Amino acid sequence: MIYRILITTTVALLLFVSAASAQKAEVTISLNEPFFDALLDSVFQNYDAPEFSIAKAGSVEDVTNSAFSLFGFGGPSAETKPAYCSESVKILRENNGVRTAVRFRDGKVYVPLAFSGGYAPPFIGCVDFAGSAEANVDIEFDPQTQRLIGRAHVNTVNLNGTGGIGGTVIARMIQGSIDKKLNPIEILSLDKVSFGLPIPNTGTIKMKAVGVRPEIANGSVQIHITYEFLKG
After folding, report:
1. How far is the C-alpha of 212 from the C-alpha of 104, rounded, in Å?
2. Residue 102 and residue 72 in contact, taking contact as beta carbons nearer than 8 Å
């Protein structure tokens, strides 16, 4: 027991001396692709598939209204849309050989997405669709809110069995919904990774996160968190 207390006190004093002399230190958290695969497996196994509306995302109306305005007509009225159409996109674990995932390549974050959904073009009725998309996620640190955030951008959409026809419209609807409801995506908040380190018979050293720097490698992302040591 005395030996254990001696070791604990020695380690605590070393930490205290290191904190007093260095004042700052960096901690690195590494997240790889298998981690996100396991996370997504758990999400789809334990919860309903993520689904979000595209009806009010500012894209269905914009696309159809733009098409009508080219010919001098107004956009379609609400009465032309069937009430039963959900006008939503559901993210699937897999569809037509494409699995929803998070991939790190060439310094970028790629997110392949499998999905299905439906929307109501004017005078046609509810149209079901399914396919896959690829999005990029730009990661940046917002110093004002002290958050590491991501911004998703949908690049390409491929619809099953259509040769890509209609993909542009669907891409705009999905991007409009992401911009309105998801972007920016909070990845890490510095106040949630700051904590106190108790020093036996002395007090507490507060480890305050003061900066974060993401580094994307092939197959993983390293999040470097800079800590400042303060008297608690």
Report:
1. 19
2. no
